[in-house]
Specification:
Strand order of the largest sheet: 8-7-17-18-19-16-20
Number of strands: 21
Radius of gyration: 21 Å
Structural class: alpha/beta
CATH architecture of the largest domain: 3-Layer(bba) Sandwich
CATH class of the largest domain: Alpha Beta
Largest sheet: 7 strands, mixed
Helix content: 25-40%
Strand content: 15-25%
Distance between the termini: 32 Å
CATH superfamily of the largest domain: FAD/NAD(P)-binding domain
Shape: globular
CATH topology of the largest domain: FAD/NAD(P)-binding domain
Number of domains: 2
Number of helices: 12
Amino acid sequence: MKRNEFLKMCGLLGISLPLQSVLSSCSSSNISSNNNPPESVIIIGAGAAGMAAGHLLAQQGIDFKILEATSTYGGRMKHNTSFVDFPIPLGAEWLHVNPSIFSEIINDNSTNIDITTVGYNSSLDFGIDAEDGEQITLSEIGLVIDRKFANSTWLSFFETYVLPSVASKIIYNSPITNIDYSSDAVVVTDTDGQEYNAEKLIVTIPLKILQNGSVNFNPQLPNNKQNAINDATVWSGFKAFIEFSNKFYPTFISYTTTPETAGQKLYYDASYGQNSIQNVLGLFSVGTEAETYINLNSDSERIDFMLNELNAVFNSNIASSSYIQHTFQNWNAEPYADGAYVYDYESFNRVYRLGQSVNNKVYFAGDAYTTGNDWGSVHAAARSAKRAVQEMIS
């Protein structure tokens, strides 16, 4: 069973994803060191996995540094707080599992978590099929278990509850070019030639960056690991948010991609659950669907294309006549991301190999580097960080 089939089954049954079995020993009560934990760790990347890993290391009293290629933290949790009167998630948007994941990430039962998420109402909320205009249910779209953040985002959560424990450890504008794990210490070199040394390393670099060969490993990664990196499919990613003067659309507008393995596309009510009177329609697209927009020549062509396809859905000029403003996020053009995430149809075994550590020294964490149960999400990235830390210190 492929990941998308598993997720669809969960949605149809109205259940949330199970915790990965490998994490049964990683609850907040037993992240612990049974042997000699490392004295120092380097983490590459200050996205969800990097910050989550640093947070757990801080709780263990282990010294660490986070080397971030860009000038800010968050990775693909990027958001926009100035477009309208609620934060717009330009990257990761929905919560795909039970809200208890917040406690799991924080790993501290004494912390009071003040994050609100809103689930969809299967009896009131609906979508329409863009091709024939017919009404469709949430289960047909596969969104029964998904929840929206209310006036916050995934990045807001990390900023509030995770960043404080790692902020002083982040070194920005440090793209990594070389990882040498041939001796007792791991030596990491950035584009300025600056070297950093530690006993252990956690790599959270987006898979597309490893695929393009900009990071050299010495010695080379094992063949099964390198083959998994080379062979995995990373979807292109493009998101758009359009403000309209009136709400003429339902909760979702669903499109069918042919073949379905090529990508996904969905318009959705981005204002859903927000304390706002502004009408914002979001566009989520990955794979070939994203490339349709990415390959247009300009932003003006892109917004014209979107308004025209929405007009076609409603057989009127309603989208064009109601348009106010827009903002776009092209993940293929985002520095040190180069794409969205590993596609839903990837093999479990390949994802499992992506997540495996090397020589008990180099560990991998992130939405692509998991146990193969689940991938392509913030919760999967955070859980992979927890697994890597547990493996490192136990």
